[in-house]
Amino acid sequence: xxxxxxxxxxxxxxxxxxxxxxxxxxxxxxxxxxxxxxxxxxxxxxxxxxxxxxxxxxxxxxxxxxxxxxxxxxxxxxxxxxxxxxxxxxxxxxxxxxxxxxxxxxxxxxxxxxxxxxxxxxxxxxx
Length: 127
Description:
The structure is a single chain. The chain has helices at residues 2-23, 25-29, 102-123; strands at 32-47, 50-61, 64-69, 84-90. It is α+β, with helices and mostly antiparallel strands. The chain has a four-stranded antiparallel β-sheet with strand order 3-2-1-4. Helix 1 packs antiparallel against helix 3 (102-123).
């Protein structure tokens, strides 16, 4: 039974790392481009009866006007409309622009690498 839980946990962690890396593949393999964007509004969402907001950004890059929605929702409107912020996107894909959150994403990857390591060492009997 213990072996089953360890294998299932390890499989889940490895799948999660694969899914994250697949989603971020362009960000990890292409040079980053930086652009200044303006907050033009918010997208609202309901979650368990609470309203959450994600900023909508508008900017010009690669000869066209683009509008993107932040992937991170918050319980408040973090920025006033008209605020100018820096966004980062992989070269050639301004539709993937988002505010730089290196520490957040390093932490997410770090948690899954740590859990994979712990489960793997426990499975091998080293822990």
